[in-house]
Every structure is written in C-alpha cells, then in structure tokens.
Amino acid sequence: MKNYRIRWTDGHDREFEEFHAITENFYNQLVGGPQNRQSFVPGNQSKDVKYAMIVYSKDDVPVACSGLKEHGNGDVEIKRVWVQPPFRGHHLATFMMHELETFASEHGYKRTVLMTRERMDYAIKLYEGLGYKRIENYPPYQHMDDAVCYAKDLR
Fold it and tell me: Is the pTM of this model over 0.90?
C-alpha cells in the first residue's frame, strides 16, 4: 500500500510493546476484565514474538502491528493483528496478513496458524476470506471454549 511503510522488528521493540499493551486493554474490555482471560495470557506475551511488523502512515505514525511466533513443525503463529481505530476500513489488516504470509514463506515456514475468539466475527470473516480453514484448537488453546483456531498452508 503506497501510503504506508513496514518496519520489521521483534517482540521486544518499544513500539510493538506499546501496541501489545493497547491490545491487552482491548481484549480485557472485550471479555469483561482481565480475570476472564487469564488462561489466554501465557500464550500471548510480546517477548515471545520472533518477528514483529509495525505499519506506519505516510506521516510516519505507527498505525498497525502484527507478529509471528514460532510454533514448531514448520508452523508460525500469527499474533496481534491490530489496526488503530482511525485507520480501520482501509484494508490494512488484509495488507498485513498478505505481508505476514509472504514473510513467513520466505523464512521457510510451511503454514501459518492463528487463534481468535468466537465473538470476533469481523476477524473470522477476514481470516476465512483469506483462505484460512478452521482447525482443532492447538496448545495452549485446546481447552478454551471461546478460542477458535485457523490455519493456512503457505506452499
């Protein structure tokens, strides 16, 4: 997308950690407080993100992020696809998903996996529209009722 640029970093990056805090607050509000998502927290630490993508506007303002976390067996997990509210509706999430998939493929991964929540119908619509197929919940989400997992082969 011509009005945006990407910077790749890792989960320890200050700007990525700031986005991570924003997403933590969002998810806490979504489920009625942090006490209702304690089982999700261990699998969602910014420090575990090997490759973080930050998207900047033409004015060099960070407007979106996502990350990739190694998952094993040739899989990489997509984490924290987030677009700041004023920048939604411009297909940034779709753009980021394509960039994540390309990056993952170029780095030798065979499949992307991800987890979202049943109530996040807009995220599910995005993922299914991009060819993701629902799979059995993988660890650590296998016993979490509200979690839904998806995968997409990259080759």
Answer: yes
CATH number of the domain bearing residue 108: 3.40.630.30
What's the total number of domains in the chain? 1
Residue-number span of the structural domain to which 75 is assigned:
5-112
CB contact burial 121-138 (16+ within 10 A = b; e otherwise): eebbebbeeeebeeeeeb
Q: How far apart are CA 26 and CA 23, in angstroms?
A: 5
pLDDT tens string, the chain, 155 residues long: the values are: 789 999 999 999 999 999 999 988 888 787 778 777 777 666 677 889 999 999 999 999 999 999 999 998 999 999 999 999 999 999 999 999 999 999 999 999 999 999 999 989 999 999 999 999 999 999 998 988 889 999 999 98
Strands (E), the chain: 5-9, 51-56, 62-72, 75-83, 111-117, 133-135, 147-153
Query: Is 155 a domain residue?
Result: no
d(C-alpha 57, C-alpha 125), whole Å: 25
* 131 three-state secondary structure: coil
Answer whether residue 131 is part of any domain.
no
